[in-house]
Design brief:
Oligomer: single chain
Number of helices: 6
Number of strands: 0
Strand content: under 5%
Order of helices and strands: HHHHHH
Shape: elongated
């Protein structure tokens, strides 16, 4: 397969993965801000399916990226590519290390236990916690940084 096709498929699978992951997060946030527990529960359930699909798309996307780099004779140790690896690992690893994954699990549990007519105090507190901002804002910023590195390919050293 040609470099152009591999690069195209790499970009399409990444866009699909990010859209599936971030779209559900944004919808959940809207429901949370409205304090609509029933809608929040429904979106969390739908979001879990979309999150699994997003995660499944990451592996072929990464493999397509490596294949595209090799087909295009791009060094896998090019500075902009090394920076991309670091941003990906540190960014998403940092979210996990800072308790973001556990925080999302706690929100899901609190939403399931909350009365439907109004969010429980626990759910309100979790949604107001700074980790909610972390798991909302960090992934799009990480992805924007990766897009910048991969498109602009800045001279880093």
């Amino acid at each position: 397969m040609s470099f152009e096709w591999l690069k195209f498929l790499h970009v399409v699978t990444i866009i699909a993965s990010v859209t599936l992951a971030e779209g559900s997060i944004l919808a959940i946030l809207v429901a949370a801000r409205r304090r609509d527990v029933a809608q929040l529960r429904a979106l969390i359930a739908a979001g879990e399916t979309s999150e699994r699909a997003a995660n499944l798309l990451l592996v072929p996307s990464l493999l397509l990226g490596v294949a595209a780099a090799l087909a295009g004779q791009i060094s896998l140790t090019a500075p902009w590519l090394l920076a991309s690896y670091v941003v990906l690992a540190v960014g998403f690893g940092g979210i996990g290390a800072l308790g973001g994954i556990r925080h999302v699990a706690d929100i899901k549990a609190a939403a399931a236990a909350s009365p439907v007519d109004a969010p429980s105090g626990e759910l309100i507190a979790l949604l107001a916690h700074p980790r909610s901002a972390l798991v909302t804002v960090a992934p799009p910023l990480i992805m924007a940084t990766l897009v910048f590195l991969m498109v602009v390919k800045p001279r880093l050293w």
